[in-house]
Amino acid sequence: MQYISTRGRAGALDFEGATLAGLASDGGLYLPEHWPTFTADEFAAMRGLSYVETAVRVILPFVGESLSEDELRDLCTQAYGRFAHAAVTPLLQLDHRHWFLELFHGPTLAFKDVALQLLGLLFEKFLARRDTHLTIVGATSGDTGSAAIDAVAGRAKIDIFMLHPAGRVSDVQRRQMTTVLAPNVYNIAIEGSFDDAQALVKRMFNDADFASRFDLSAVNSINWARLVSQVVYYVYAAVRLGAPDRKVAFAVPTGNFGDVFAGYVAARMGLPIERLIVATNVNDILHRALREGDYSQGTVIPTATPSMDIQVSSNFERLLFDLGGRDGIALGEQMKGFEATKAMRLTNAQRDGAAKLFTSARIDGDAMSRTMRWAYDAAGQVIDPHSAVGLAAAHQVELDPSVPVVTLATAHPAKFRDAVERATGTRPTLPSRAGDLFGREERYATLPATFEAVTSYVAERAVARRG
């Protein structure tokens, strides 16, 4: 299995190379050169498997010769052994047709753990084969940072520099990052939005002078290994609800499009998905793109769902590439235009292709709060605001009533205590595995959102490329 760039000018890499590189050298994102597929019988055979064994079957076709099946199984066993629920991503029934897929049983209480616990082990495995010291640079709107830091803290041959927007993540999210005092962990609060942080990270990869000085890699969902790890829970949930004999719909709260793109990959592999419901908050670039073909950047509006306060959705590029005939040169020009003007129209092929599988809904703060209250009153569940955005979209979109709808519950409600308390009157408590989070020392730097300030900070602390 080889991986190619969405912008068509970078050389192909194997799974190990794509994992360590993160972003392609031409600014594009890596995708497998073809989609592996499973038969109906192969999906049906996964119904009784553990999460680890499901992960091995789903991920194995993507790793090529980079890992043996036994090596992959060992890494998955280690990664998912840290989860607090034996099912790893259990299903919870809300009513006669709505289900929650609980993705928050990992060490940092959010869905990012499912991918990043494995990605940290993949980094360590691949670096052991090389004389390389990896410098990870990442941007987070809240959950990626803590999950990535937990996954790589203290690991040999890795430093991590994580940017978050100052004052725009919850106190729990911030402390989960800034109280990790491992010597290879550097937290940076930038004076700007998540989009500013994400743009700085991309520029670091694309700046030839800076990138040539360090072995850079990414933990954001621009890293393909993160996305393929997330495909697993779509398969795991669907086969438990009757797939492949029964179609399933998924509602996904999303800002950066990575989580819902993993569902698209599952569909390309043959999983019978009726609909992928893209749920946005008022930062609705994805909703506008899917509904009207208008992918234009607006001003980020801070909300009670900070992980979705995004106006540039990096992973949308992967979908546009796949739906546009996989013409990397053409997409590169399309994305260059967007980066210059902050606006872009989808082509007819991209719009028509997306309409076959995706629908979307824009959920404002009032609808989010009402849905949190509904979950509490009707189903006895305290849910976080991001999951409530997904559930509100699931309620709003009309589908065949015989199709079960699974909402991805992306975070533990205790990560957003204030918003939950306002909506339900109940203040959730952190589970014991979070420890004494509010009694720990914090450590982070605050920097202006400028390329010069951030790269100067990183360069003073990162390990330079050998040779």
UniProtKB/TrEMBL annotation:
<dbReference type="InterPro" id="IPR029144">
    <property type="entry name" value="Thr_synth_N"/>
</dbReference>
<feature type="modified residue" description="N6-(pyridoxal phosphate)lysine">
    <location>
        <position position="112"/>
    </location>
</feature>
<feature type="domain" description="Threonine synthase N-terminal">
    <location>
        <begin position="2"/>
        <end position="80"/>
    </location>
</feature>
<dbReference type="Pfam" id="PF00291">
    <property type="entry name" value="PALP"/>
</dbReference>
<dbReference type="InterPro" id="IPR004450">
    <property type="entry name" value="Thr_synthase-like"/>
</dbReference>
<keyword id="KW-0791">Threonine biosynthesis</keyword>
<dbReference type="InterPro" id="IPR000634">
    <property type="entry name" value="Ser/Thr_deHydtase_PyrdxlP-BS"/>
</dbReference>
<comment type="similarity">
    <text>Belongs to the threonine synthase family.</text>
</comment>
<dbReference type="GO" id="GO:0030170">
    <property type="term" value="F:pyridoxal phosphate binding"/>
</dbReference>
<dbReference type="Pfam" id="PF14821">
    <property type="entry name" value="Thr_synth_N"/>
</dbReference>
<dbReference type="GO" id="GO:0004795">
    <property type="term" value="F:threonine synthase activity"/>
</dbReference>
<dbReference type="InterPro" id="IPR051166">
    <property type="entry name" value="Threonine_Synthase"/>
</dbReference>
<keyword id="KW-0028">Amino-acid biosynthesis</keyword>
<keyword id="KW-0456">Lyase</keyword>
<dbReference type="InterPro" id="IPR036052">
    <property type="entry name" value="TrpB-like_PALP_sf"/>
</dbReference>
<protein>
    <recommendedName>
        <fullName>Threonine synthase</fullName>
        <ecNumber>4.2.3.1</ecNumber>
    </recommendedName>
</protein>
<feature type="domain" description="Tryptophan synthase beta chain-like PALP">
    <location>
        <begin position="88"/>
        <end position="345"/>
    </location>
</feature>
<dbReference type="InterPro" id="IPR037158">
    <property type="entry name" value="Thr_synth_N_sf"/>
</dbReference>
<dbReference type="GO" id="GO:0009088">
    <property type="term" value="P:threonine biosynthetic process"/>
</dbReference>
<dbReference type="InterPro" id="IPR001926">
    <property type="entry name" value="TrpB-like_PALP"/>
</dbReference>
<keyword id="KW-0663">Pyridoxal phosphate</keyword>
<comment type="pathway">
    <text>Amino-acid biosynthesis; L-threonine biosynthesis; L-threonine from L-aspartate: step 5/5.</text>
</comment>
<dbReference type="Pfam" id="PF24857">
    <property type="entry name" value="THR4_C"/>
</dbReference>
